Amino acid sequence: MAESISRSLRDGCLEGEHAPALTIEDSLASSLGSSVFDHFLAHLVSQIAAGKSQARGLVLVAFNRSPAFYLELLRRKGVDAQHVDKRVRILDCYSDPLGWKKRVPPLKTAQNLPVKANVACFSDARDTNKLMASILDLGKGTSYSELDATSCNVLNLVYLLTEFVGQDKSRFAVAIDLVSSLLRYTSLPTVAGLLNKLRSNDQTSCIVWLIHSDLHEQRVSAALAYVSTMVASIQPIAQCTDEQTSQQNSVWLGKNSDKAKLHVRLKRRNGRVKLLAEELHLDQVGVKFTAVGAQNSNVAKSLLPKVQFNLQLSEQERVERAKVVLPYEHQGNGEEIQIYDGRRSLSDSISISQPSVASPVISDTQVAPGIGEIHYVRDSDDEQPDSDEDPDDDLDI
Amino acid sequence: MNPSFSSPTTNLLDEALGIGCTGSVPWRIALVQDCVEASGAFLLHHLLKRSLSAEAAGAVVFLGLAQPFSHYDRVLRKMGCNLSLQRNKNKLHFIDLLDLEFLVAGGTDQNAIEDGFMNLYNRILRFIEANNLMHNNGGWIRIIIDDISLLEIAAQGSSSHTFDFLQYCATLTSELDCSLLILNHGDIYSSEEDQCLLSHLDYLSDVVIKAETLSTGIAVDVHGQLTIINKRALGELGWSSSKVYNFQFKLKENAVEFFYPGTKF
């Protein structure tokens, strides 16, 4: 299922359609959203680097983590540094989102970190129009001097950026690492408007963004779900109850720290909504996805005892069992129940007799030839048939 | 001199937080969340003491909104640490913010509050700059905030501006060898909207330390319990899975004792 999401992002959008958009949402109960975002981001970048995707480049809008983190992430995931330099542009909204660093003297003795050519600093997070323009500029690879950056070789950057997607109408992908941060700076309608504009832009291939659902009202998640074509929601594996003690809580936290359930809602073009679920767990390498219940069914199978005979019936065996006629069972074929009182001799024809309390009640059915039957001949055939008398009358009790 | 300090003995808290012998830590942002019944101030005192020990190779910026400098000086002196001496040696930079009007000195409009936070950020930067000049760019910096709820009050209740300021402090942790320790109260937020800052802090932090009372009530030998969620312990290959620790504590006159439940005799 995660594969289908990656495929959808890789394939991008059709002509005349809006770009596919993936919302990844998590909460404090299961905060693996950032890791899932990293997974899809790295996968998309590797597809772009290999030339297998519709997008020729990617613009990453970094609010939550530093550009250096993402460059290191891509290096760890095995994406060639040259491809990263050429195909990935990072709009740094993390270091100075409100422009404070321009208004205070910079640190004089700070080690001057080499400014990466593909990182552009953005200092006006409250202005979504400027943000939109910067994203598109980076995506199209227009003159870098229009962007707000300092201490970099402008000529070098213009060269690199024009190489980015070229001057033709190639598409680029957009990834926003935390829409929740953007929602702190501006209102929901403005953010929804920005995302819609990005989706409808001719050169956008696909968009991915992450949101922490418990930082906002329910309507925010709903509004973003309307804008997106895929919603991947991360839920905890184990549910927490309010009555849990702190120790139980710590066990619950431990269980939910690296495992979660991924619920995906895919919106098809024809309007059909597909709901899928998978389990994910986080290890040293990254996020791994497995089918739901794969472990559960194995457990169920192992509960059956391992013996050398079959404890279950096959379908044919069930049918045969249903056909078996039980000797004392009324078959419901319309015939009257005939009670055998134990006194009829073999020569007597089968006839209806009065049922008596003392006599054994035996239902008698028309016996088909060839089927075994038991004939009981009483010793005292001459005696009167049993009546309602107490059989212990002859005893002196 | 700090007689009780010849070599800092490792305790459960230091192990859980990964505090090295030089006082360095593997995390960038830690949140201490306490409540009325179990105050987390002792954690700040303990971590302040560890940060200013003889072996410590860094400096501390302390934003004091809850208590005056003399209070911390008195408490740490009992624990064997002379804050006045450390301040004179420029290992400790104490920013006295007891007067909660410091942010609105220039007016009460939103721009004035933002400017106030920016000035505070500038003061921190200047200290870091001075420290780097003195120690030739060596050593780590620890910023301790006591406490964030008072910072929000100083900002006239604007959690947005407060979080903006924290965001800038957080960027310092990724650009420099800097860590951030924040104290917040978990039981002062009534509605879900107000809890927004709590949730933001939880997402931001690498380590969350919760100080709570025992579910069984008050005890003589056990004063409370700590739950430490170390979310992002750095490994060689990147993030490792988070670790959760749970143990109890007892506050003594000069120190704190940490032990696992049932091991206190």
Topology (SSEs and partners):
The complex is a heterodimer of chains A (397) and B (265).
Chain A: H1 2-11, E1 21-26, H2 33-49, E2 55-62, H3 67-76, H4 81-87, E3 88-92, H5 100-103, E4 119-121, H6 128-140, H7 154-165, E5 171-176, H8 179-185, H9 188-200, E6 204-212, H10 218-227, E7 230-236, H11 246-256, E8 259-267, E9 273-282, E10 287-291, H12 294-303, H13 315-323, E11 338-339, E12 363-364
Parallel strand pairs in A: 1-6, 1-7, 2-3, 2-5, 3-4, 5-6
Antiparallel strand pairs in A: 7-8, 8-9, 9-10, 11-12
Chain B: H1 12-17, E1 29-34, H2 41-51, E2 59-64, H3 69-78, H4 83-88, E3 92-96, H5 110-134, E4 141-146, H6 148-154, H7 159-175, E5 178-185, H8 196-204, E6 207-212, E7 224-230, E8 234-235, E9 238-239, E10 243-251, E11 256-259
Parallel strand pairs in B: 1-5, 1-6, 2-3, 2-4, 4-5
Antiparallel strand pairs in B: 6-7, 7-10, 8-9, 10-11
Helix pairs in contact in B: 5-7, 7-8
Order of helices and strands of chain B: HEHEHHEHEHHEHEEEEEE
Under the CATH scheme, which class of chain A?
Answer: Alpha Beta
Quote the beta fraction of chain B.
15-25%
- Mean pLDDT across every amino acid position of chain B: 83
Strand order of the largest sheet of chain B: 3-2-4-5-1-6-7-10-11
Low-confidence stretches of chain A: 142-163, 296-300, 349-366
| Category from helices, strands and their pairing of chain B | alpha/beta
CATH architecture of chain A: 3-Layer(aba) Sandwich
Total helical elements of chain B: 8
GO molecular function (chain A): tRNA binding
Subcellular location (chain A): Cytoplasm; Nucleus
Organism (chain A): Zingiber officinale (Ginger)
Family (chain A): Belongs to the ELP5 family.
Short description:
Helix content of chain A is 34%, strand content 18%. In chain A, the strands form two sheets. A ten-stranded mixed β-sheet of chain A has the order 4-3-2-5-6-1-7-8-9-10, sandwiched between helices.
Describe this structure in words.
Chain A: Its main location: cytoplasm. Chain A: One of its GO terms (molecular function) is tRNA binding. Chain A: It is found in: Cytoplasm; Nucleus. The complex is a heterodimer of chains A (397) and B (265). By secondary structure, chain A is of the alpha/beta class. Chain A has a single domain, classed as P-loop containing nucleotide triphosphate hydrolases (Rossmann fold, 3-Layer(aba) Sandwich). Helix content of chain A is 34%, strand content 18%. Chain A contains 13 helices and 12 strands. In chain A, helix 5 links the parallel strand 3 and strand 4. Chain B is built from 8 helices and 11 strands. Chain B has a 9-stranded mixed β-sheet with strand order 3-2-4-5-1-6-7-10-11, sandwiched between helices. In chain B, strand 10 and strand 11 form a beta hairpin. Chain B is globular. The two termini of chain B are 32 Å apart. The chains are: A alpha/beta (397), B alpha/beta (265).
